[in-house]
Design a protein that fits this description.
This protein is α/β, with parallel strands linked by helices. It has ten helices and nine strands. The strands form two sheets. Strands 1, 2, 3, 8 and 9 form a five-stranded parallel sheet that branches.
């Protein structure tokens, strides 16, 4: 390995386990409640992939207003869909977004959705330019700030998957149980720190596939269905597929029908275990002791 965060583990060497009900494949939905600052503080960093026509410099009015659409319009459109299908969800929430959008926090909380700590804001990415002390302080600030606004976050998703060599250890020390930043597996596993790595959306995240890789939106439901078909056809259990859903993306009027197609297919399948990310992490953690 090129690091000591966790050891290498080939799939055939691991114990096989099942999700509740004897099911082999689990699914979680990960909504995003994010705030992009018009003018982030000096010295902070954002995902360098968002440039060109999607970035207006500093201050960044273009990105701000586009993300604001998700919180004003797209999130409510998606909530109607999830209510109709009666599906549970986890919500990756920035601290600044939780502070600015109590109406969305209240809507998610009353439905029993689960928060996942998602850094300070969409414009402040964790990078190795931060000292360990700075990173630890940021993790603690997000943990404590969210606990006062929306308690119950046991997991962490780095903004734009930003991380350092110390991140998994710092998260475990801060009391987090799982992370969603390592896309190197179909099954949960433990880092050396004890933090559980739950497979993140990765290939099934709407921004990753539709915005950055430019997959045609009508192909997205097929992509999800094909992945589930393959995972269900394989004999191993403990598999996880997460869907990353950004309201400014799949909440748009010309895209939401494709989210509906994918979620309707998931809701119809009787061989899937559908739960929040935190519930899956707790179940996997018990199985991997």
């Amino acid at each position: 390995m090129d690091h000591e965060i966790h050891g290498f583990s080939a799939q055939p060497t691991r114990p096989d386990f099942r999700w509740p009900g004897g099911k082999r494949v689990a699914v979680y939905l990960l909504l995003h409640l994010e705030h992009t600052e018009i003018q982030p503080p000096e010295g902070t960093h954002r995902d360098p992939r968002f440039r060109g026509a999607f970035f207006s410099g500093n201050p960044d009015w273009t990105t701000y207003t586009q993300r604001d659409y998700g919180n004003r319009i797209g999130a409510w459109r998606i909530l109607e869909l999830l209510d109709r299908l009666r599906l549970p969800a986890s919500v990756a929430v920035n601290l600044l977004a939780a502070q600015r959008h109590p109406e969305l926090v209240a809507a998610y909380r009353e439905r029993g959705y689960e928060p996942v700590a998602h850094g300070v804001s969409a414009s402040r990415m964790t990078t190795s330019r931060m000292s360990e002390a700075e990173e630890a302080a940021q993790i603690a600030a997000v943990r404590d700030g969210l606990s006062a606004l929306w308690p119950g976050a046991t997991g962490w998703l780095g903004q734009d998957h930003g991380a350092t060599e110390a991140t998994t250890r710092l998260l475990a020390e801060a009391g987090f149980a799982y992370g969603l930043d390592w896309a190197n597996d179909d099954e949960p596993y433990r880092h050396a720190s004890g933090l559980l790595a739950l497979p993140p959306p990765g290939e099934w995240d709407d921004v990753q596939t539709l915005w950055l890789r430019r997959l045609p939106v009508n192909r997205w439901p097929e992509l999800v269905a094909e992945a589930l078909d393959r995972l269900l056809a394989e004999p191993r259990g403990g598999r996880v597929l997460g869907l990353g859903i950004h309201p400014w993306m799949l909440g748009a009027p010309h895209r939401v029908r494709y989210l509906g197609e994918a979620l309707s297919d998931i809701a119809r399948r009787t061989d899937l275990h559908i739960a929040t990310a935190g519930a899956l992490a707790a179940q996997a953690g018990a199985a991997l002791r």
